[in-house]
Amino acid sequence: MTLIDRTAYPKFKQFPDPKELAELYTPTETEIKLVKTRTKSHEGFLCFMVMLKSFQRLGYFPHPELVPIAVIKHLRSYLKLQDWVKAIPSERQRYNYQNAIREYLGVKQYDKPAQRLIAIAIAVSAEVKDHPADLINVAIEELVKERYELPAFSTLDRLVGHIRASVNNRLFSRISTGLSQVEQIYLDQLLSADALESTATLNLLKSPPKSATLSGVRQLQTKFDALMTFGDAKRLLASIARTKIRYFAAQGRALDISEFQDINLPKRRTLLLCLLYEAQIKTRDHLVEMFLKRILKIQNNAKLRLKELRDKHLTETSELLATFAEVLKVSKEATCATLRRGWLLIAVV
């Protein structure tokens, strides 16, 4: 059964705070006048008001014993009723009050037409969505939009489970029928324990990528080549929404070989095909990521080596320049001395 907390199905907060009580459960003057015209006793007055405010909050009539005590106390206090006034109506009162509340709020009782309405909406959504909670939310949204009273949560859960299973079985049958004999054998061999090393297996589909080393890249390339011997699986899944493919692949990833063997053939092959398709995509993406990491590492190493060479040649160049400067200095001094001797000779003559 789907967890109610994962859906939008409304329910009471068991311990509402004073602000929530004041905003959600305080009756208006119009509502008080309505209830007074439909009841003849204090107990009837309180029961009707509790049912009215509960329905306004939830969109359905909860069992009287499930209404939080804080809500009943708030209404009893606001309506200035004694503590002994009970809020549990009789079966006849519940029936009459429910009809009066539906009439006042303009809400229709959940019936066969309402069931057909949400069944169509669920079936359409089940072609794209797969989680039961999401499909229950679709049903709730449709009922609220069409002004229908919400049925019990278990009713919605059973209906969603039945329709979802029917839609998925049609998808499984359609995908399985579209497989060629070679493709069927390939998918069946994924569960074989005696598969060759060059053949893809279920464990290979689930295996995580290695580190971005050269050997890791080679292993990942080998894996990708093995997966692509099937061909591009995308063409066989063109009629299924991407969200459904991801869900079926996740479902297949959670199963082992023995669990796969317990599944009927069309569903088994569809789950394996979705898992294979996801593995092809992820392996290709990992290959690209690893290649980029390798190139980046080579580039960084090249930059580091270039810096080392520059630093080395800079030192050598600095030493050569210093030596050259000494040579120039000595040459300049020698030239000056020669010039001075020449001028002295000329002076003597």
Task: Provide a descriptive summary of the structure in words.
By secondary structure, this protein is mainly alpha-helical. It contains 14 helices and no strands. The chain has helices at 18-25, 29-38, 42-58, 69-78, 91-105, 112-126, 132-145, 153-177, 181-189, 202-206, 214-227, 242-253, 257-261, 265-348. α3 crosses α5 and α12 crosses α14. It is elongated. The N and C termini lie far apart (126 Å).
Radius of gyration, Cα only, in angstroms? Answer: 40 Å
First-to-last CA distance = 126 Å
Compute the average pLDDT.
Answer: 88
Q: Show unreliable segments.
A: none
Number of helices: 14
Largest sheet: none
User: Helix proportion of residues, in percent?
Assistant: 55-70%
Instruction: Report the count of strand segments.
Output: 0
Structural class: mainly alpha
Q: Beta fraction of the residues?
A: under 5%
Short description:
The protein is 70% helix and 0% strand.
Task: Give me some keywords for this one.
349 residues; single chain; 0% strand; mainly alpha
Secondary structure elements and pairings:
Elements: H1 18-25, H2 29-38, H3 42-58, H4 69-78, H5 91-105, H6 112-126, H7 132-145, H8 153-177, H9 181-189, H10 202-206, H11 214-227, H12 242-253, H13 257-261, H14 265-348
